[in-house]
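Hi there, hope your week has been kind to you so far. Please have a think about how the structure follows from the sequence. I've dropped the whole record in just underneath, so have a look:

_____
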Amino acid sequence: MIHTLKSARIEHAMGGISGGVVSTLVLHPLDLIKIRFAVDDGKAANRPSYSNIRHAFKSIYIQEGFKGFYKGVTPNVIGGGVSWGLYFLFYNTIKTELQGGDTKQALTMPGHFAAASGAGLLTLALTNPIWVVKTRLCLQYGNQMGLGGSASLSAPISSYKGMTHALITIAKQEGPRGLYRGFVPGLFGVSHGVVQFTAYEYLKNWWSHYKNQPIDTKLGTMEYLAFAAVSKLIAASITYPYQVVRSRLQDVNCPYGSSRDCVRQILRYEGVRGLYNGMRPYLLHVVPNVCIVLLIYEQFTNNS
């Protein structure tokens, strides 16, 4: 383990941090809307309901102004940067260890699974509290229901003044358990990273073999973008429901007793479609997000 840590290359972390911060700042409004769609079970009278993405953008702007689109942006930027930085650091450290230090040696599929799983688990354990805070801040609404709403909100559902205040408040009121709400469905989310990075590495290796060049050869911008987009679409289509369950469990007004209870109630009252609430803004957010992250990361590490 000590040898593995010593072999870690800091440029992988810096590349991940850079990509995570840039993509989060650019795409945070779509992430916020995805979360609001995901927690909307159609039963809560004290939160706005949006009919589509356009309606959501219009409602938030009228209710909360431009700043409303960036609620929760601080923990999202920190979480995005730290998560991508840690993930790439852990992933490439484990991957290099499995390759025996030879970056030109292609890993088997089980090897990619092992690297992605280990990186995902370690990153989730370290960053889950940040995502709880981000979700809570994104679910602080304005003073009115918005377009089409029949009721008004006299006060936000929760009243955190910022990231630090939210962390302290959750820790005091709910203890460590509160900071790790959504951790179990987050474990399922590790499978998302496994599918995504296995597909991404496979596509890069396949292309390198097709062009008869070493697998660590630098590719072109459009090649990185294409492989990033395809791998993200594959992973998202398979694993998205965990995002809905995780967001609902992290909501301060969570009515579910567990992940299983959450899934059971969603299927009972909303059907399978309920497990895919917010899928459209999610795809609009994560596909360009991962393209930005991986492009910056590849450029950063290839030039280091």
